Structures are given as C-alpha cells and as structure tokens.
C-alpha cells in the first residue's frame, strides 16, 4: 500500500489477496512465506496485463547488428553469438535451434578419394552445414554401360587418375547442381547430360540417389544454448540438483526439449509462452519457456527460446525473443 500509493486500506488489500488466493491465482509456498503468483496467476498476467517493451526490442536489435556480422559469418556462428548476447541481457537461459535442413540448397560438393574402391562425398548447404557420405565405387560386374565399366576399372587401379577424374566430376556437378534443394537431386532430368560426361551417367545417378536418400529431414536439429552461469545467480536455481537436471536436459536430451521450442501452439508467427506446469518436461516445470520461430524465405526453419523462472520479467523477455528471431530471419536471407 505504501510503495504503490494505493488509495485503499490494508484490510481491502488483504481481502483482495485472499480472494486471489481462493481463486487459485496466488499461493503460499510454505507456512512462513508470503503469497506469490501461481502458474494460473502468471498466465492471466501475461495474457491480459503486459505489452512487450519496444525499447528493449530496439536495444537488442541494435546490439545484434553491432556485434554480429550477418553477411560474413556462418549461420552457426551467428546463432552462437546471438544466444550469448541474449542470455547476458536477460539473465536467463537462451535456446536457439539450428535451422531445419529440408529447405537447404546445395552450395558446394566435393568428391574425395578414400581407400581403394571407396570415395567420400562432402556436401555444403546454403546454411553452411556440412555432411559427408562414404560410398563404394560400382563394381565392374554391375550392369553399367561398357564405357562406365572401363572408367571405373581404370579409376580403381590408378590413384592419380582417380583424383583427377573426381575433381572433374566435382566441378561438373557443382556447375549443374548448385542452388538445387538436396531432396530433389535424385529427380533431376539428366537427358541433356553433357556428352563428355555421358560415361559417368550411372555413377552420377547413384551418387545423387544416395545423397537424396541420406539427407531426409531430421526429427530435430541441435540447439545452441547459453546462460547457465547467468541463472545460477537466481534463488530459484540455488539447488545444485535442480541445475544438474536442467543441464542434463540441455546437453543430453535435446530431442525432448526441441519440440517444445520449435512446434509452437500459438499462431504461426506468434510467441509461445509455457508457464510452469504447462511445460510437459518435469525438469523445467518450475520455469517459463518463451519461444518464437525464425524464418528463411517465409518458411519456419528454427526457433529462439528463453528459459527462466516463472517470475521472469515477461514484457522484456518476450521483446528480446521476438527481436532476436526477427534478426536471425533477416540474417538467413543474406547468407
């Protein structure tokens, strides 16, 4: 009453607090404690009583642009830097999923000689993620054209020739395939294949079939996280066992956490806010999880999340998550 200069009596405040407690919006964690908001109380507060801070959003956007180089850095470096900045500003744990790879296009590939009879295909996508696949060269007795059989036989016997031919093939494939989605490589029309590469036709098709098969959409991608040292300063995270449980979830059980961050229940471009017991994972049921998707070419490919105590400053946390998601979406269009 004194701090907020309320124009009511202490008795009125006590009665109203009692009514809120009876309604389940406040509770007493133990007998000697005061009343604090319940998960339901925070839900009403978040849904009806706050507006995300435009000032905080502008500040974090400016800071991200000043400290990160969206044009020259890899996506992984940008996400790692953004996570660190966000956790420092908020004092909470920041979680940013790596982009989904289903919409990734081929940026570069390289065929490399391995042990006799085997080659490695190294693929770099437009999000600078890399994949490597080891493949066996077709055997001479496989039903290939005579010309292909002769080439493979020669490649298997002459290491220097193999390196030269693989480089030629790599250059040709880069010229033909750069910018194509990985998933569509096996369905491309090769009827107009350059004549001097016709002898490689079956080998190329085998390579691309294998690549397309092995680059299907993963169930989840890796999560960049930052801010464990920040939340250790908060009383809610003073118990070592609780922190260890959350850390185990972040490091070893990301497949459980990932769907909560990326698959938001709210409308497609909105912010998802899970408070306390609304989180299905027990280790974080004492926390609130705020997340928002980021986009590449208007397609959601990842999310920015923030994990902190239920008493977090929601108007600031929401603004930080929204502004960071917008910045990452903008960065993806420049890479």
UniProtKB/TrEMBL annotation:
Q: Does the keyword Repressor apply?
A: yes
Q: What keywords are assigned to this protein?
A: Repressor, Stress response, Transcription, Transcription regulation
One matching Pfam family is: HrcA
* GO BP, sorted A to Z: negative regulation of DNA-templated transcription
Q: Tell me which stretches of the chain form a coiled coil.
A: none
Gene3D superfamilies reported in the protein's UniProt record? 3.30.450.40, Heat-inducible transcription repressor hrca homolog, domain 3, Winged helix-like DNA-binding domain superfamily/Winged helix DNA-binding domain
Gene Ontology molecular function terms on file: DNA binding
All copies of the Heat-inducible transcription repressor HrcA C-terminal domain together span 76-318
Q: Which domain of life is it from?
A: Bacteria
Q: Which InterPro entries match?
A: GAF-like_dom_sf (IPR029016), HrcA (IPR002571), HrcA_C (IPR021153), WH-like_DNA-bd_sf (IPR036388), WH_DNA-bd_sf (IPR036390), WHTH_transcript_rep_HrcA_IDD (IPR023120)
User: Which PANTHER family is this protein grouped with?
Assistant: HEAT-INDUCIBLE TRANSCRIPTION REPRESSOR HRCA
Q: Which family does it belong to?
A: Belongs to the HrcA family.
Q: What does this protein do?
A: Negative regulator of class I heat shock genes (grpE-dnaK-dnaJ and groELS operons). Prevents heat-shock induction of these operons.
What name has this protein been given in UniProt?
Answer: Heat-inducible transcription repressor HrcA
